[in-house]
Amino acid sequence: MRRDEVRDLKATTLLRTSHSKVVDQMGHAIVSGAYAVGETLPGDSELEERFDVSRSVLREAMKTLTAKGLVVAKSRVGTRVTEKCHWNLLDEDVLHWHFRAGVSAEFLNHLYDVRLVLEPAAAALAATNASAEDCGELRHYANALGASNLSYRQQVEADLKFHVLMFIVSANPFMESMIGFIKTSLDGAFTLAYSQHGNHPRDGIALSHLAIVDAIERKDSTGACDAMRHVIELGRQSAIAALSRPSARG
């Protein structure tokens, strides 16, 4: 992702093709348990009729699901749902389907543990590589989190832009390759937490992010790393707390 693309970043993406719609509906059905592990999917004719697509579109969709680790095709057997250990949780779609299907506190804890590995390291690298312009843009997104006129969805998107830009500013190509995973994981977790936005101290959210920017501007890698850890742990608490609220369960 380029820096100029961050400004237009949205929390959701519209499905535009028949292929993407088949992949999305079948993928979500598998992750949600509508098709159990080991179960054989309906035959091509049935799925073609259900989705009103051609055989070629359906087969390409199945190839996509295979690449994501969700299914495996065997001759004379059909296409079966694989064991969950084969599902690629780093894949944006697979992670998105988990959030749509409903996640547990255990799932969120695993996700935030991964964030604790990746994002403090990205912040530390940003403290070394960020320009004054980079810091100004990060500060802009951090300040947006404290704007009382923003909806929770707008706050989600400002938060997404902050964290995605952090990975770009780290100037590490391996970190940048994780942006899709980070965007989807943050989108799901932030949306869950911010769905209870009325209970969140907005100023505190802004200040915790501004602390990261302050450390980056000082070229303080350790400070940036610690400040990012603090933000992630606050996010973990908010997301897990949101699971127990009626709107999160509904």
From TrEMBL:
Family matches, as SUPFAM superfamilies: GntR ligand-binding domain-like (SSF48008), Winged helix' DNA-binding domain (SSF46785)
Keyword DNA-binding: yes
Pfam family, one: FCD
PROSITE patterns per the UniProt record, alphabetical: HTH_GNTR (PS50949)
Keywords in alphabetical order: DNA-binding, Transcription, Transcription regulation
HTH gntR-type domain sequence ranges: 16-84
Phosphoprotein found in the keyword field: no
PANTHER family found in the cross-reference section: GNTR FAMILY REGULATORY PROTEIN, TRANSCRIPTIONAL REGULATOR, GNTR FAMILY
Record-given protein name: GntR family transcriptional regulator
Lineage, top ranks: Bacteria, Pseudomonadati, Pseudomonadota, Alphaproteobacteria, Hyphomicrobiales
